[in-house]
Design goal:
The chain contains six helices and four strands; from the N terminus they run ααβααβαβαβ. It has a four-stranded antiparallel beta sheet. The protein has a single domain, classed as NADH Oxidase (3-Layer(aba) Sandwich), CATH 3.40.109. Helix 2 crosses helix 5 and helix 3 packs across helix 4. It is an alpha+beta fold. Helix content is 37%, strand content 17%. Bound molecules: flavin mononucleotide. Flavin mononucleotide (FMN) binds next to strand 3.
């Protein structure tokens, strides 16, 4: 499959099965995703894998951040259980005189997109999710992020369902290309 074909075929899966890639399976995919263009090769990102009860810990922090209690809190926290593996994508900017913060965030975003793509190509179902609490203090703290770090969201990963209904509408590329 060419890269263009992989991109055209990639779909997000809001519902995935209960198996997930092991750390051993994940590492080469992260290595591949980490080869995106990176000004100064700063590698200004990292991934935190949440499995098992770690998902609940993060889910509860999200509920706290949203000011929820009781069953509403449980409902929000349970959302992290939608996939057996949840990968938190972290922008981890490095001190640099030549590469501003926004460029480093662009690199981390590129890694997240590339990781979604290679996971999909490897046969896993993936969906990038965020939420209003993504950059809340409690959520930052539960991920043990440094003061300079922030989240870009989470890739929810699990077994790809056998089929996906509906087709993504193809963009009309000419609407997105102009010349000066
Ligand atoms: C940064 C980012 C955050 C996203 N957050 C959410 C989200 O919280 N909930 C959601 O339903 N989709 C979210 N999406 C969109 C889905 O990941 C997905 O792209 C969308 O459902 C379209 O499906 P497709 O990727 O198959 O075209 C997000 C995408 C990105 C890039």
């Amino acid at each position: 499959m060419t890269v263009a074909e992989a991109l055209r075929h990639r779909r997000s899966y809001s519902s995935v099965g209960s198996t997930a890639p092991t750390t051993r399976q994940l590492l080469p995919l992260i290595e591949a995703a980490g080869s995106v263009a990176d000004h100064g090769s700063l590698h200004p990102w990292r991934i935190i894998a949440l499995r098992g009860s770690a998902r609940d810990t993060v889910g509860r922090a999200m509920a706290d951040a949203a000011g929820l209690e009781g069953s509403s809190a449980e409902k929000l926290a349970a959302k992290l259980r939608r996939a057996p593996l949840v990968l938190a994508v972290v922008v981890s900017p490095k001190a640099s005189h030549k590469v501003p913060d926004w460029e480093q965030e662009a690199v981390a975003s590129g890694v997240a997109h590339a990781l979604s793509l290679v996971l999909d190509e490897a046969g896993w179902g993936v969906m990038w999710r965020t939420g209003l609490q993504t950059r809340a203090k409690a959520v930052h703290k539960v991920h043990k992020l440094g003061p300079h770090e922030r989240l870009l969201g989470w890739l929810y990963v699990g077994a790809k369902p056998p089929s996906k209904s509906g087709r993504r509408t193809t963009i009309s590329a000419k609407d997105y290309l102009s010349a000066l």
